[in-house]
Design brief:
- The chain is mainly alpha-helical.
- It has one domain (about 30-300).
- It is built from 7 helices and 6 strands.
- The radius of gyration is 19 Å and the shape is globular.
Length: about 300
């Protein structure tokens, strides 16, 4: 079975074409609004408001909630309400399960604990963290489907797509974790780590976690009916822009801010500028290339988009 098909061919029942519901090259205005709110939230990281706890929690909410709502609305158009519901359940379920396991055993991420920065918690796990999995997890999945340009989930693509999506998602965490953990103290790594206070096990754990729910979602998609309509390019560009704004938001952090030095849980001191500069480089050299590649691949598609 070929790994790709053009927009005029019709897949067999064992092939998968995403359920795109709208043939027009227009998107709901709410998606643009959510993207704008998220962009503003990225800029708010540079603002220090002297009100205890509220500002950082507000920034966290504005980072997490718009992305999750975007995923739901865009995903419902792309995969139908049932499809995005399945994605949400798998994403939140698998993500929360592995996070809870690691909080108690150290596997797979390592030993850490959450502070009050991310707001209310259930069984030591912040509710907002689960939504963070949903938002950026969905963006990473869409970018992977666009880069591969394969609307057919063959046995080979059944692994390729989750693997690529996992790499894109881990790139986001690689550029984000040292800032939120070591500088903002949203969570504390008990034994510190080589990457500015973050252990390598964190990124291996992230890859395992997201790969599991991506693979389960791919298996679900392979099992559903395949008679779907198509959408235009604009629908595919928005997740790329969302992921790009996330990357560029990390670049904004190179603007100097206090404190100059921070320490991890082991007492090791790290220079804040080194952390944000490195995360900015990761954003520019790892995250943005994924976004650019997805954009270029999308531009080469003729006719309606089948991602």
């Amino acid at each position: 079975m070929p790994a790709q098909t053009d927009s005029t061919s019709f897949p067999s029942r064992r092939e998968f074409v995403p359920p795109m519901r709208n043939s027009q090259d227009a998107v709901p205005p709410l998606l643009w609004l959510l993207l704008l709110v998220y962009a503003i939230a990225r800029g708010l990281q540079l603002v220090e408001i002297p009100v205890p706890r509220l500002p950082i929690l507000l920034v966290v909410i504005l980072h997490v909630v718009p992305a999750a709502l975007f995923a739901w609305i865009h995903g419902a158009t792309t995969y139908g309400r049932r499809g995005i519901l399945v994605f949400t359940v798998l994403c939140l379920g698998v993500g929360s399960a592995f996070e809870s396991l690691s909080l108690r055993t150290g596997f797979p991420f390592g030993h850490y604990r959450f502070t009050d920065v991310m707001g209310p918690k259930i069984l030591e796990l912040p509710m907002l963290l689960a939504l963070a999995y949903l938002g950026m997890g969905y963006m990473s999945w869409v970018l992977a489907t666009l880069i591969l340009r394969s609307a057919i989930l063959t046995r080979r693509n059944l692994l390729k797509l989750p693997l690529l999506a996992s790499c894109i998602m881990v790139a986001w965490d690689l550029a984000m974790d040292p800032v939120w953990a070591t500088i903002d103290s949203a969570w504390i790594w008990r034994n510190g780590g080589a990457f500015f206070g973050v252990p390598v096990s964190n990124y291996l754990g992230w890859f395992l976690t997201v790969f599991v729910f991506y693979l389960l979602f791919a298996l679900y998609l392979r099992s559903v009916p395949t008679q779907w309509a198509l959408v235009g390019r604009q629908h595919g560009r928005l997740p790329i822009l969302f992921y790009s704004v996330s990357a560029l938001g990390n670049v904004l952090l190179v603007v100097p801010r206090s404190p100059t030095w921070v320490t991890d849980a082991t007492g090791r001191a790290w220079r804040s500028a080194d952390i944000v500069d490195t995360c900015a480089l990761v954003s520019l050299c790892v995250m943005l290339p994924f976004a650019v590649l997805a954009w270029v691949r999308l531009r080469k598609v003729e006719g309606p988009v089948t991602y």
